[in-house]
Amino acid sequence: LKIKEEIKGLNQFQVLIIHNEKMEQWLRENGIITRMVILGIFDYKGKDSKIPEREFDGNKKIKLVVAGNLSREKAGYLYQMKKSEYYDIHAYGINYEVCDQVTYKGTFEADELPGKLEGDFGLVWDGDSTSACTGNAGNYLRYNNPHKVSLYVRSRLPIIIWEQAALASWVRENEIGFTVNSLEEIDDSLKNMHKDQYMKYVRNLKELSERTEEGMNIKNALKKTEEMKKF
Known about the structure:
The protein has 9 helices and 8 strands. By secondary structure, it is of the alpha/beta class.
């Protein structure tokens, strides 16, 4: 009943700005008839802080960044991950609980964070399982644009994301990282990672990072919205 009421309310608008194609499909299947404009990813302005240089050293363990709400409800998987011979986990955010396999780096204001993330890849994962994104938080990844994706893009940090997440295809198409079905697959992907591939991710992130900092995603969405309202 609540979904029907919300759909009815949304259909009162001339145009909706939504996250991505997967969200558009879900909304259509559930009764949205109004026109929609796809945002892409959220912009991330922040302070004009210096972004750490991303380099690849095959002789050192990868630093895997996890940023955001680190509570067991949101990020229970973090406390189940086993130590890897290929990467160390560096966590940034609130509600952290001490665990052996994680190096906790603290909390920072959102506009300071892009200049603080020290690592090689940013992980986009939610839920309490390492085998798939589960629960409400995990299932939401199938449809939404996580803010941490924008943070990683702004930070020019290559991304590892769940294969079934709404933005997985966007990460692949822009060649800014890779997807996995389970966290257990990360080891093999990193074991076979070459410097040329990694630096290609970093180069591709440069333009996306600048667009995100300049607010181009919402500017373009608003422009398309205004054009739609004319007809």
